[in-house]
Amino acid sequence: MKNLFVFWDEPLNPVGGGIHRCIINLMTFMPQRGYNVKYIYSKDFYQTFNYETGEGKIRNIPLKDLGSFLKEQHCDVVLGQEAVFSSTFTKAFSSISMVDIKFVNQYHSTPLYFQKKLTWDYLKFEWITTHSLKSRLALIARGLFYPLWRWNVKRNQNIIYKYNYDNSDVTLLLSEHEKPHLKKMIGEKDLKKCVVIPNPLSWPEIVSTDILKDKQKEVLIVSRIYNSEKRIDLALKVWRILQDRQLNDGWTMRIVGEGIHEAYLKEMTHALGLKNVIWEGRREPLPFYKRASIFLLTSVVEGWALTLTESMQTGVVPIAFDSYPAVRSIITDGYDGFIVPTKNLEILSDRISKLMHDSDTRERMALNGLRSCRRFEVNKIMDQWQNMLDNITNK
Fold this sequence. Notes:
By secondary structure, the protein is of the alpha/beta class. It has helices at about 20-30, 65-70, 90-95, 115, 120-130, 135-145, 145-165, 180-185, 225-230, 230-245, 260-270, 285-290, 305-315, 325-330, 345-355, 360-370, 380-395, and strands spanning about 1-10, 35-40, 50-55, 55-60, 75-80, 100-105, 170-175, 195, 220, 250-255, 275-280, 295, 315-320, 340.
């Protein structure tokens, strides 16, 4: 058995988001493929590390002792989860000079994350929802020097990604569609150290086609209610378009999730006079997927968006903006879902209306999704992990 140590900055949470789920999958399925997977987290920007030794006991390891700890544990591979946001962990690991341990940096979001998120729309929305004087002064400064601010964002991320790439044995991306962007950002002619492994399905079961006869006239959103990224306000605006044209009569929009912008968006729902919009709060999403017919993702940026594959494996037809590279690794436009030009509410409303009023198309695309999502069954994804780990540890 070989030993893989996964590092991140949060305690592991079985009901947490995508990164938590991916780590738990590795811990669950990789031992049968020859890899013990152990988890270490830091709460102080990778200066000290917390390792659960069993029976609720936690061992605290300072950075200066991390190398001897990993040797003691016969570590073969270190997997970092921080690469898309910073080079802090890469620098920490590089400082202990463990040349016999392979180092993998995993990008859980697109390398375009900051470029896609930090825009005029972001500044305007933050201005509306932020009331502290300090935050507003920062927003004013960014607005006044917007071109310079954007240039600096890109420059800093390019530096981070270049450092992470140069100082790792593998850079792990979610989609082949991300490669051209990373190549341009770090100035590499090819990405020899780049491997693509998508995220697996969230649940072991892909529903039977029988579920389609029980689907309700419901459009579903499952999301953290953080509008700066998720842009749920756009979903509300398109619902108003459909309502004005009497195209969503008899249909309901359900929004499952919670977050800091929930009150703002509920007030917007009221101000727009929207009908049949139900805010469910934080709930177990699977029963809602099983009822819904259409899934809506309006994010300005994502990494993988597990909600899209969750919708496919439960017979829900997904519609998403063309706002991040990996969406084209999940949805084949017009076959198992729709990809809509980013923020184009007219086309989005047309696609939703098409699915609402054409049950044959809706059922055909749902069936296609049930087939196409099998690409992401957990065993198939874990096989890809095994191949990647075998390749670097056998060199």
